[in-house]
Amino acid sequence: MAIEDYSGGLSPDAEVIVVTTNDVPGYRVTEVIGEVFGLTVRSRHVGSQIGAGFKSMMGGELKGLTKTLVETRNQAMERLIEAARARGANAVLMMRFDVTDAAQVGTEVCAYGTAAVVAKDGA
């Protein structure tokens, strides 16, 4: 499998800048809108759980589950961006992920951060 299957993030031409920092180098924050989040819950597939169980006995990476988690995080991030854009933001600062079990049947992934409006320095 290719590295794209195991990585996430935004394309360089994304409309909303998402960073894990308090600010964006080369930009100034002109307005703080507030907290935004994107949430998704994925159920566990019985077949993948059985396969993961066998793999865990032998050791090694659970590639199918890794790929599923990457897809889930990317979906949560897409929803975060949609929420920020809907509130008039062009940036999300201090973005984080939170992952928890959801009622023993799935995994909840929440991407959250602070929606803001930023402008290039000197503009």
What does this structure look like?
With about 120 residues, this protein is of the alpha+beta class. The chain has helices spanning about 45-60, 65-85, and strands at about 15-20, 25-45, 90-100, 105-120. The mean pLDDT is about 85. It comes from Streptomyces tremellae. Belongs to the UPF0145 family.
Query: What is the CATH C level class, in words?
Result: Alpha Beta
Task: Give the tally of structural domains.
Answer: 1
* Element order: H for helix, E for strand: EEHHEE
* Distance N to C terminus: 43 Å
- Classify the fold: give the CATH topology: Translation Initiation Factor IF3
Task: Give the strand line-up of the largest sheet.
Answer: 1-3-4-2
Radius of gyration: 17 Å
SS elements, strand count = 4
Q: Tell me about the biggest sheet?
A: 4 strands, mixed
Architecture per CATH nomenclature, i.e. the level-2 architecture: 2-Layer Sandwich
Pfam families: YbjQ_1
Protein name: UPF0145 protein GCM10023082_41710
Family: Belongs to the UPF0145 family.
Organism: Streptomyces tremellae
Provide key terms for this protein.
four-stranded mixed sheet; Translation Initiation Factor IF3; 30% helix; alpha+beta; 123 residues; single chain; 4 strands; UPF0145 protein GCM10023082_41710; UPF0145_dom_sf; UPF0145_YbjQ-like
The gist of it:
The mean pLDDT is 84. This protein has two helices and four strands; from the N terminus they run ββααββ. Helix content is 30%, strand content 37%.
List the helices and strands and how they pair.
Layout: E1 17-18, E2 27-43, H1 46-58, H2 63-86, E3 91-102, E4 106-120
Parallel strand pairs: 1-3
Antiparallel strand pairs: 2-4, 3-4
